[in-house]
Design a protein that fits this description.
Elements (H helix, E strand, L loop, with lengths): L2 H14 L6 H6 L1 H4 L17 H11 L4 H20 L13 E11 L4 E11 L1 H4 L8 H15 L2
Antiparallel strand pairs: 1-2
Helix pairs in contact: 1-7
């Protein structure tokens, strides 16, 4: 999943829940892409996606203002949730180097209007988890534009 999706999908979710998006929340969106910083080590969806990194980080964040902690936690966990739905990640990396996730596909036959929903729970090994990192894609751009349009039309 790309950076724009990880930033703007949680923002749209918060907005749909009635949260007023202000500068503080926009600043905290850095936590929605923090897990992807493991790409610096050359192994995407590894160290910073692991609960061995995330749980201590969230415990340390409790020393920050409570309102910020709530949003930091939301942004980090949303990242992990979306990556889980986008193929998975190793939960306990580097102790256990394989992970679990889901592949979700919606197939639509426009002639018959048949909908097929395919849900595949998969086990991923390092060779399939450590793939190239996509910084921006069309899906993320559409989500970002939806967020911007929703806020400009207010």
């Amino acid at each position: 999943m790309d950076v724009l999706t990880h930033v703007f999908l949680p923002l749209l979710t918060l907005q749909a829940m009635g949260v007023k998006i202000d500068r503080r929340i926009l600043f905290l969106t850095i936590f929605s892409v923090l897990p992807d910083f493991d790409v610096i080590f050359g192994i995407h969806r590894s160290y910073f996606h692991s609960f061995l990194f995330v749980i201590p980080l969230l415990l340390v964040s409790t020393y920050v203002k409570r309102e910020y902690t709530k949003y930091m936690t939301f942004f980090i966990l949303s990242h992990l949730f979306f990556d889980f739905l986008d193929g998975g990640f190793p939960f306990l990396y580097p102790i256990i180097k394989y992970g679990y996730g889901m592949n979700i596909k919606l197939l639509i036959n426009f002639k018959t209007l048949d909908f097929n929903f395919i849900l595949d729970i998969a086990k991923y090994y390092p060779s399939s988890i450590h793939r190239d990192y996509t910084t921006f894609d069309n899906k993320g751009l559409v989500i970002a534009l939806a967020f911007l349009a929703a806020n400009l039309l207010k």
